[in-house]
Amino acid sequence: CFFVMTRAIHPTIIDASKSVDPETGKKYFAYGEMTVVLGETVVTLIVAQLMALGSGGMKEWKAIWDPKPMKVFSFIGFVYALGDFLEMASMGS
After folding, report:
1. Which among 63, 61, 37, 39 has a CA at the least distance from the CA of 50?
2. 70 and 77 in contact (C-beta within 8 Å)?
């Protein structure tokens, strides 16, 4: 339910973050399109590591660095990041 809600409200938030050029009246991003994706990635990494530490201590935290599942989840994360970038690029025009 939370995922559906965030995906539904996401375009509204992106549009609200645009600045308006006073000369032309056109909306534009006052920041680079990748800035949001990189910021989201950093926050997700920090929160996920804190959650792993909080729920299972050092043993759980070390388990997230196991190469086999990391390959799978890194690919999934890459696909989501690509989708976010394409969404930002499409709304930037």
Report:
1. 61
2. no
Structure tokens at 18: 């645009």
Residue 74, number of CB atoms within 10 A of its CB: 11
**How many Cβ atoms from other residues are within 10 Å of residue 54's Cβ?**
10
pLDDT-flagged residues of the chain (< 70): 33, 92-93
pTM of the model: 0.59
What is the DSSP track for the chain? -HHHHHHHHHHHHHHHT-EE-TTT--EE-SS-HHHHHHHHHHHHHHHHHHHHHHHHHHHHHHHTT-HHHHHHHHHHHHHHHHHHHHHHHHHT-
Query: What is the pLDDT of the chain when averaged over all its residues?
Result: 85
Nearest-angstrom CA–CA distance, 93 and 90: 6
Give CA–CA dist 81/62, Å, rounded: 24
